[in-house]
Design a protein that fits this description.
- The complex is a heterodimer of chains A (about 325) and B (about 525).
- Helices cover about 75% and strands about 0% of the residues of chain A.
- Chain A is built from 13 helices and two strands.
- In chain A, about 40% of the residues are buried.
- Chain B is built from 16 helices and 19 strands.
- Chains A and B meet through helix 2, helix 3, helix 5, helix 7 and helix 12 of A and helix 6 and helix 13 of B.
Chain lengths: ~325, ~525
């Protein structure tokens, strides 16, 4: 286990370094950030001065060198547009994104697993067919459409939920979060549900497929014959064996939602990280993009690591190597 | 029962103390405004994007105030006069306080301008050569040459407090601003809301609206939804396609106002064009330029592409600006006339037309991509095969940067918040590489010694009427030469709930101080 962890750590460092190099290279194609910051009729001298202030007057290699040395001291550079430390910009928006993603994943899991188990165990029943059709909708409907429909129907027409924003923020365990207030929950339902739809559908289908394969196994009939209750057979024996692919997808989706919940955040004016990324790309704000993508890579590496460890608990036959 | 005087006083005070909170509860007015984006920074010398600018004018004040109709009047400076051709003396108002209670001093103005010159926004102080504090309430500003429009430029320079800025540092200033303006920053949750509170000791009187909350909602449909549910009282930049829906809603009014942003088509007049595969650049011939102007049907673009929400440009700057020639109208000089356009093309020797590339943005101006596409079909009628090269704004500015080997026909916008055509002409139409600071954005490579001379004369007088005269002559020459085709001004579209009193500003900087809301 120790060797496994160390290997993963090394892998993580390599991945992060590669991401930073790729982003620096890519940003050479996205336009000169100076022009996004200075007024359009700036003279050559004024532009040169702006370049000096932003640190863009050196060759790319030198800029990358400065970036790396700053990294080692925990300094990720100042955003060209916000003139604040890039890392802080992301960190102050992280709680909002995490809230939305956590609630979305909870909704997805709590709905998808039981429905998937039922549909997998009773494939012929009409309810199962209904569930599967529903999941098709979930997979194919685009998130932004679902979000805007929900706003239109539930917020504008029927005034049940607010149309956008995060609501009041309170403190739980010392963390600032909107989940601590009723207003926060009121605001989070629609965006979290919109975000959860795609994941819900995928998890449901994976669970059902896994269950269908597993229910055919002899040990399932044997356990039933031994007298285990139907619920116990399905969940304790069936689901557990079907869970490996589901957990894999869960991990990938979790990383995906954290990193790229941009569309949902933009539609619901949710003050999360995703919107920061898109805006920074439009504005060629390299310091923020590089930190953001490195953070995303880190999140994916950590999640995958945890999922790999989780496998060993679900299926004791699997060992980490 | 009779009360002794002290008892009476005590009861009166108690009555007041109990009543007062109720009184303020009844009187406290708040307003929620929806913007298209969150401000990026609250340091007025670190950036100039619209939402940030809107905040700047709430929290800070300039020496000269620009009003909703582009008229310039006293701000923090109550009067000014010319000492000599290049020296202006500004008298500051007495008794102006910063939010932290400190008094405004001339040294703050000096500090502001010095810091501005070393910042990314140094271009705002391009016409200021030096600044000195004569005494606590008098500032002397010298200009490099006689410059009649200095007060206009000062309307964009917001005054900082020297002691505060030096103590908190640049990075903190972007988050915790402090100025003399009518509002103080109460809370800023990035991308969610920014709350301003009225400054009780504002020099021109406390604002009528006590609390202003700005909510950035980028998605236009969500912004409209928040307006319809009442979560927003005022919306800026209502989506064009939502205008009819919102107008039909009872209790909501839609207001439009032509913006300052003029969409211009810049035509390369160099001998050889980088995007036209002919030995001679057709657009170097004035007749071809006129043909192009006559082939563009601005009225149809307005109706079909802009849904009626554009105002055809009469000249390069709006009526309110110094340098505008009363009565001259580009559309009347060169009306839409395909037959005449074809004649002109034939006269110039291009009856068979030619192929060229239009460089345009696809995410900067309202319906910019669609306007470009409309131009393709319009110019096809005079046999110009227009290839579209559209790109995001982050690439565009670098791509078209003059002198350009990539671009010959460029669609972009230009606005002049200083209310003075001279800055625009000096940047766009002055011969390039002739005088430092002039012709920096001369995308057409236009060079007319007469225009240069007129601009030089405009910049050598400190009298605004003389400047206006020279600039008007320049306008006439430019309208005749057609280096660029002015297409239209975008419309700024606002929507408000009943009870809100609001007049849109030409410069688009919503200012809660001049608004009111019914209780």
């Amino acid at each position: 286990m120790f060797a496994f962890t160390v290997r993963r750590l090394i892998q993580m460092v390599v991945v992060l370094w590669a991401v930073s190099v790729i982003v620096f290279l890519m940003m050479t194609f996205t336009g000169d950030p100076v022009f996004m910051v200075v007024p359009i009729d700036a003279t050559q001298d004024e532009i040169a001065q702006a370049r000096r202030i932003l640190g863009l007057d050196r060759p790319m290699i030198v800029q990358y060198g400065i970036f790396l040395s700053g990294l080692l001291q925990g300094d990720f550079g100042l955003s060209y547009v916000f003139r604040q430390p890039a890392f802080d910009l992301i960190l102050e928006r992280l709680p909002a994104t995490m809230e939305m993603v956590v609630v979305a994943m909870i909704i997805a899991t709590v709905v998808a697993i039981p429905l998937g188990v039922y549909a997998g165990a009773n494939p012929g029943k009409p309810l199962s067919r209904l569930i599967m059709s529903g999941s098709l909708l979930g997979v194919s409907l685009p998130g932004f459409w679902v979000g805007m429909m929900l706003i239109w129907v539930l917020a504008v027409e029927y005034r049940i939920f607010p149309s956008s924003g995060r609501g009041d923020v309170g403190t739980i365990f010392g963390m600032q979060t909107s989940l601590a207030t009723a207003s926060g929950w009121h605001h989070i339902i629609l965006p979290a549900f919109t975000l959860s739809v795609g994941t819900l559908a995928i998890l449901l289908r994976m669970t059902r497929a896994g269950m269908m394969e597993v229910t055919r196994q002899d040990y399932m009939k044997f356990a039933r014959a031994k007298g285990v209750s139907r619920r116990g057979v399905l969940y304790g024996h069936g689901l557990r064996n079907a869970l490996i692919p589901v957990v894999t997808i869960f991990g990938l989706q979790l990383g995906d939602l954290i990193a790229f919940a941009t569309i949902t955040e933009t539609i619901f004016a949710w003050p999360g990280m995703g919107k920061l990324l898109i805006d920074s790309i439009y504005r060629a704000d390299r310091p923020v993009i590089v930190v953001y993508l490195m953070l995303v890579a880190l999140i994916f590496v950590v999640i995958n690591f945890l999922i790999d460890v989780l496998y060993t608990f679900i299926d004791p036959r699997i060992t980490v190597k | 029962m009779t009360l002794n005087p002290s008892m009476r006083r005590l009861l009166t005070t108690a009555a007041f103390a109990i009543a007062l909170p109720f009184a303020s509860m009844v009187d406290a007015k708040d307003l929620t405004i929806g913007l298209t984006s969150d401000p990026t920074i609250l340091d007025p010398q670190a950036g100039e994007e619209l939402s940030s600018n809107i905040m700047f004018y709430h929290i800070y004040d300039p020496l000269v105030r620009r009003d909703a109709d582009m008229q310039f009047g006293p701000g923090l400076a109550e009067s000014w006069s010319l000492k000599d051709e290049k020296t202006w003396v500004f008298k500051l108002r007495a008794g102006v306080k910063f939010h932290n209670g400190e008094a405004l001093k001339a040294s703050d103005v000096v500090f502001t301008i010095d810091r501005l010159k070393a910042s990314v926004m140094s271009n705002l102080s391009a016409n200021i050569a030096g600044v000195t504090a004569v005494d606590d309430l008098t500032v002397e500003i010298t200009t490099p040459g006689p410059y009649a429009a200095l007060p206009n430029d000062l309307a964009a320079i917001l005054i900082l407090n020297e002691a505060y800025v030096t103590s908190v540092g640049d990075t903190e200033l972007g988050l915790k601003p402090m100025g003399t303006g009518p509002y103080m920053l109460k809370e800023w949750v990035k991308e969610d809301h920014l709350t301003l509170e009225a400054f009780p000791d504002y020099f021109a009187g406390k604002a009528r609206i006590d609390t202003v909350i700005f909510r950035p909602i980028t998605n236009p449909a969500t912004r409209t939804a928040a307006l319809l549910t009442g979560e927003l009282d005022v919306v800026q930049d209502l989506a064009v396609r939502d205008v009819d829906r919102v107008k039909a809603e009872p209790g909501i009014t839609v207001l439009t106002r032509p913006s300052l942003l003029n969409i211009l088509l810049a035509m390369d007049v160099r001998e050889k064009s980088p995007t036209i595969a002919l030995d001679k650049n057709p657009m170097a011939d004035r007749r071809v330029r006129e043909a192009i102007a006559r082939a563009i049907d601005v009225a149809t673009i307005d109706k079909v592409v802009m849904n009626g929400l554009a105002t055809a440009s009469a000249q390069f700057v709006p009526e309110s600006h110094v340098g505008y020639v009363d009565g001259a109208d580009f559309r009347a000089m060169y009306p839409f006339d395909i037959a005449r356009a074809k004649e002109l093309m034939a006269e110039a020797g291009f009856a068979d037309g030619f192929t060229m590339t239009l460089d345009a943005t696809n995410n900067r101006y309202v319906n910019d991509a669609q306007i470009a596409q409309a131009l393709t079909s319009m110019l096809a009628q005079i046999d110009i095969d227009l290839q579209l090269n559209m790109m995001p704004k982050s690439n565009f500015w670098g791509y078209i940067r003059t002198p350009s080997d990539n671009s010959s026909f460029i669609m972009s916008g230009w606005d002049v918040p200083s209310g003075d055509a001279g800055s625009m002409y000096g940047a766009l139409y002055y011969s390039r590489d002739k005088k430092p600071g002039y012709g920096e954005v001369n995308r057409t490579s236009y060079s007319n010694p007469e225009v240069d001379a007129l601009l030089d004369q405009a910049d050598s007088t400190a009298k605004i009427e003389e400047r206006d005269g020279y600039l008007q002559e320049a306008t006439k020459l430019l309208l005749a030469d057609i280096p660029m085709v002015p297409v239209h001004y975008e419309q700024d579209i606002y929507a408000l709930h009943d009870g809100v009193t609001f007049t849109p500003r030409t410069d688009k900087f919503i200012w809660a101080y001049e608004m009111d809301v019914a209780e």
